[in-house]
Amino acid sequence: MLDLRPNCECCDKDLPPDSAEAMICTFECTFCAACVDDVLKGECPNCGGNFAPRPIRPASKLEKYPASTKRVLKAEGCAPKAA
Fold first, then answer.
1. 83 residues of the chain, pLDDT tens digit each
2. Residue 19, domain CATH
3. In whole angstroms, what is the distance from residue 64 CA to residue 21 CA?
4. CA dihedral for 28, 30, 35, 37, sign (positive or negative)
5. How many domains does the chain have?
6. Would you state the torsion angle of the CA atoms of residues 38, 42, 44, 50, taken in this order, to the nearest 10 degrees?
7. Which terminus of the chain is more exposed, N or C, with fewer CB under 10 A?
8. Which residues of 17-56 are buried (b: 16+ CB within 10 A; e: fewer)?
9. Residue 17 is part of which domain span?
10. Taking the model in full, what pTM does it have?
């Protein structure tokens, strides 16, 4: 089951479980759409993979299957990827 991490690993923007801005790679690295497009240019800085929109868990399932509260943030930040 997906963790539904609560923030962007680059800019620390909040990404609640119903956020349409949350993007994930195959390892569930989580970033906001703006960082994926503008900074990372579609490539995960952790694994080199691509991104897909994170699915939205139905509100009716969040009580039984809550989103993660563990924030992950790259201490060194995300360097812009060369175009």
1. 899 999 999 999 999 999 999 999 999 999 999 999 999 999 999 999 999 999 999 999 999 999 999 999 988 888 777 66
2. 3.30.40.10
3. 23
4. positive
5. 1
6. 160
7. C
8. bebebbbbbeeebbbbbebbeebbeeebbeeeeebeebee
9. 1-56
10. 0.91
